[in-house]
Write a structure and sequence with these properties.
Layout: E1 2-9, H1 13-16, E2 21-34, E3 39-51, H2 64-69, E4 73-84, H3 91-121, E5 143-145, H4 147-153
Parallel strand pairs: 2-5
Antiparallel strand pairs: 1-4, 2-3, 3-4
């Protein structure tokens, strides 16, 4: 279920959107396994944003938080996801399961939220890609992963 969301459109969006850089980021914020009730609980954060076109190299680009603050268009959302699991599980298997499956559970709702916000603002944005198993997360609509920014700025 959706627990938090933020949306912003810059007044210059319409004039600069065609040449904008588009990014997607998705992070598992936390997980908890309730062994007594066999419930796996966690929060997933999804973000999409469009920045003014940049000729900067990847190393010179701002952090994700800086990019979001300067964005032409952005949507951020957090989802609380719950799975009922049966059987025995290790801490590593639970974490791996949620990191893969939790984001899959939240993604369709995030795609719909982005479309809804864009429609309410009267702006046109590329449709977010459909998430597929074992396929790199990039390209449809020209979106790139925000993880590219996070990895670059971690150095």
């Amino acid at each position: 279920s959706l627990t938090n969301s933020q949306f912003a459109v810059d007044p210059d969006f319409r004039s600069e959107q065609e040449a904008s850089d588009k990014f997607i980021d998705e992070v598992v914020l936390n997980t908890h396994f309730d062994a007594d009730h066999q419930l796996l609980l966690g929060h997933v954060q999804c973000r999409v944003w469009m920045n003014r076109a940049s000729d900067k190299t990847t190393e010179e680009r701002p952090s994700i938080e800086e990019a979001l603050a300067q964005s032409l268009f952005s949507v951020e959302a957090e989802y609380f996801v719950v799975f009922q699991l049966s059987g025995q599980h290790t801490e590593d298997s639970i974490k791996a399961f949620f990191e893969r499956t939790g984001s899959f559970a939240a993604w369709p709702y995030f795609r719909a939220l982005v479309s809804s916000f864009a429609a309410a603002a009267g702006v046109s944005v590329p449709v977010l890609p459909i998430k597929r198993v074992l396929v790199p997360f990039k390209a449809e609509g020209g979106y790139a992963s925000g993880k590219e920014l996070a990895v670059t700025n971690a150095n």
